[in-house]
Structures are given as structure tokens and as C-alpha cells.
Fold this protein.
Amino acid sequence: MRNIYALIDCDNFYVSCERVFRPDLIGKPVVVLSNNDGCIVSRSNEAKNLGIQMGTPYFKAEEVIKKNRVSVFSSNYALYSDISSRVVEILKMFSPNIEVYSIDEAFITLNLTNSNFTKYGKEIRERILKDVGIPTTVGIAYTKTLTKIATKIGKKNIEYGGVLSLLNEKDDDMYLEMVDVEDIWGVGRQYSKWLREMGIDNAKDLKYANRQVIRHHMTVQGLRTVLELNGIDCIPLDSRRVLKKSITSSKSFGIKTDSLEDIKKALAIDVAQAGEKLREQGSVAGTLTVFLLSNPFKTPCYSNSISIKLPYRVSDTPNLIKYSLIGLGKIFKSGYIYKKCGVVLSDISTVNDVQLDLFNSSFINDFNIKNKAMITMDRINRKWGRDTIKIGSMGIENTLKMKQDMISNRYTTDWNNLLVVNI
DNA sequence: TCTGGGGTCCTAGGACCC
DNA sequence: TCTGGGGTCCTAGGACCC
């Protein structure tokens, strides 16, 4: 029996989240910026129509933005992730099989007893819009890659009313022809350049391409994409809550700096954040990588990284900070203006798998004590806000704090930020 | 002046083993 | 002195995703 997939994809998600609390902005151009107010990462349809491109640096679009009175927001991840989880809760009512693919997309499988799939898709859409206030597009098909194609077309053509089903396969080729090769899930910049050179311009061309040639040039993943375009299900729903295999935390500095002392503090803050994520999933890390970059848009530039194999797996912030500062000391070179640093934790396993040190009997106690202290610290910080308790090396004030000049309130996750209504 | 952050999977090649 | 074939593990780098 064939699976039937639906992809529920929130429209212009970050912008839509901002509009939930600013309904006056519906119908008006709005953009949301990346961290540090660097690039434009979400655009309302009105902003798209002004020619504002995804990923454009803010300063390059500033003129168009001012001229057309586009509303601009810094990104507010506390708000977006809370709204995202509300959408997921609703989807769970429609299907027990769900894969939360990203902050604004989820796949579900549909039961064959729902005979009218398009109608069911519309019900899902309307429920999310009514209960959470977020508009979505729903794509329905026999493979996940085809649901991606369906939402892509559904978003561009309002006549589908936000739901497009490709279950009537004789029409597939007509739809596939509408989608450029660059826009296919699994085809990025490098592959699309090569495909274009091969005369493969759209999804229909790729569907009928020579499979051996594709396999050779684009590995098994490329082959899977071709098969999926043919309606052959190769990428199953992945509903496991998987443990992350690596955890990164890094940030560009709000102010560029050549000061090792400032960078040490910024790195300690990143490490603390990574450590918290590590403990949240009950894991410990065996390897830690520190990296440091000067401004890549300026010459001369310098970047370096160093990986440190930890003597034993840890998850406590003081140890992680200790080793990362050793690493930083080894790669820091004076005389450059730095703009970013960060840490990657890898070689991750669960706490239960930790190899204890036979020759160091005090180690077990040490491990347990530090962990209890960390768990308590995490709990307090979750309840009372980030950095209520922190490690000394993070400093009192983050001198390189990122820019977020236009951030909205944390309306749904902070009592002090509740929406105020004047009557 | 101003250019984000956080992930996954696959492959090739080297080291090492029997 | 000559020399084979097959396997595993690890790492770096390249591709992709949101």
C-alpha cells in the first residue's frame, strides 16, 4: 500500500508570527532580519513584490525599505519557536504520524479512509489559521519530494486556495514542468548548475533523466530525488526524536574586536549555550572544536579552528569552557579584527554510555556532582530567564552582544511582555 | 559602516588489520 | 626474494537543508 504524505508549510513564517500580534501589518510589506540584523530572512508577499530578495544584506535593501515604508523586525526566536510548537500541537490532532522538519514545516501521513484529501488539507489549514493565526500551504502527494513541489506551486498560485494534491498522477508532468531545477528539494547551487549544463531545466526533465548518470554525479541522494519525482517513495517519514550528533553555538560580534579578553567572554557564552543544549538531550561530548574568523569581506583575513579530544566525555559548562579557552589560546593571533567565534561539540553519546576512568576513582563522584550542579543551573535559568546563573568567565556584561535593534516582544513566553489592550 | 546560525548525509582516501 | 585481496575505521571535504 502506498503512503500518502502531506507537507504543511507555514507561509512567510517569521513575518506571519509578527503579524499575529500586529494585525495592522496584514497587507503591508514586512521583513524580518537574521541575527545581528544582518540579512533579510523572511519577507511578506508585498515585500517580495518590491523585489526584495531572500538573504539580501539589510544595508543593501535599506533604500527600497525606507522608500516603501517596509516594516522591519529583528528576529525573535523565542516567539517563533513557541508559535511553531502550537502549530505542531494542532497537526498532531490530524495525524499521529508527524515529522517536524523545521521551525515552519512538518510532514504527516494521511489515512486512506480520508477519501477527499484536498478537503482534508483545507480543514488543516483553516484550523491552524483560526487557532494560531498562521497562514499555511498544504501539499499532498505519494512522496515527500512531490509534496515539496506541490507547496511550491500552491504558494505561487492563489487559485489553489492553499492546498494542492498531486495524487492524480497523470497530471504530474504538467506540474513538474512548472518548477525550475533550482527549486527542487535536494538540488542546490552546485548540482543545478551542472544539471542546467546537461539541459535539465525543470523537475519534469529531472524525472526522466538518465538514472546512472545522476547516480554517478549526484550520489545516491540525487538518485533518490529522481525516484521520488517518479512517485517512488524513498525518503520515509522520520518521526524519531533523534539526538543531535553535533551541537554548534556561534555568533557574529555586534562590534568587531581585536581584544582576546572580549573574545574569551563571547566564546564562554557560546560554550554555555552549547552545553545547555547538550544536557537538554541527556548527552555528553567527547570532542570540542573552537573556531575564530576575522571579517571575510576584508583583506587580510584570518580564520582558524582547532579540535580538542577531551580526556573524557563531559557535559558540564566549566569543563567545556576550560578546554575551549585552551583551544582559543592556540588559534588566536593578534593584529586582526575579529568578527565571529564559536564552538562545535561532537562525538556525542548519551550519559549512560560514558566510559568511566578506571584509574581515577574520584572521577565518578566528580562527574555526578558537576552534573547535579548543572541540572540545577539549567532549571533555574529556564524558569527565571537565561543567564540568571552563569559561569564567571562569561563576564558580567557581554561586550560583543549582537545587534537586535528592532525586536518585538516575547508576547507568549514572558509575563512582562504580554500584549496590552487599551479599551 | 552594515553580509546569520545550526544542522545532516555521502564519498574518497589513508591507515591499519588479517 | 617474491607478493594478493579483502575488510574496517576514521577523517576531511563537499554537497545539501531550513
In short: Chain A is about 40% helix and 20% strand. Chain A has three domains: 1-167, 168-240, 247-394. The two ends of chain A are 57 Å apart (CA to CA).
